[in-house]
Amino acid sequence: MHTDNVAILGAGNLGKSIAEGLLSNGQYEPENIFVTRRNTKSLQQLKDKGLQVTTDNTYAVKNCRYIMLCVQPAHLENVLKEIKPILDPEKHVLLSVIAGITIENIANIVGDFPIVRSMPNTAIAVHQSMTCLAFNKKAASVEKEVIEIFNCLGEALVIEEELMAGATVLCSSGIAFNMRFIRAVTQGGIQLGLDAEDAQKIAVQVSKGASTLLTINKSHPEQEIDKVTTPEGCTITGLNEMEHQGLSSAVIKGLVGSHRRILDLKEQRERESA
User: Fold this and answer.
1) 8 Å CB contact between 35 and 66
2) Residue 1 pLDDT exceeds 50
3) Where is the binding site for NADP(+), in residues?
4) Which fold has domain 168-265?
5) Which of 82, 120, 123, 139 could be cross-linked to 135 through a Cys-Cys bond (beta carbons 3.0 to 4.6 Å apart)?
């Protein structure tokens, strides 16, 4: 059981998912999780479960060691300036889940602090997030503890910070991309005669099974594809038709487009702050 309190500042959809994940995993008691938002009406469910819900960021920071920054990028500077007077580099660890905000951006406002940049996704609420982490030098001493927190919520991977934009596309946006694929399979199943509920159940379980095969077998996708494709069979016919229609190309272009948008927004913020 973790005893170092966690503050989640700016609990939108992702922040609420993190809070739900930490609680339901059993690694934290409700009273060890502080959640803030300017309007706490949408946090009533968390409050009913015993979490510390407040509009006061400074109150949450005073009572916590790990400070998760989950606010919108436009609000980050004001929030950091608000809590800066009570931040203690010997006590607090700042964990940012804000896309496009670098460790240097945060350090320029608060000074020399242990800062961790993280990119989870909303599956964190059900302990199935893929979370990428990048640490500054001062945060090296808490790397193990931070990894343990996010491993409680799925899988955590430490990467170099310059790869975080790409990780954002695969981790965070990737949830939406996979959902869209499952939706497309469901729609196809309906066209083939299944009712919507059954088609979605099949699509979801097949997606889960495919991921589990790769995880357990530690294999390449093409190795698993080869096991189910026979000469002149229905599987290879379907795969080839999808590729003729640009499946892989469309996915790669979508990833590259999302990545480009992240970099464009980063450049825009840098110009505005110059």
Assistant:
1) no
2) no
3) 9-14
4) ProC C-terminal domain-like fold (1.10.3730)
5) 139
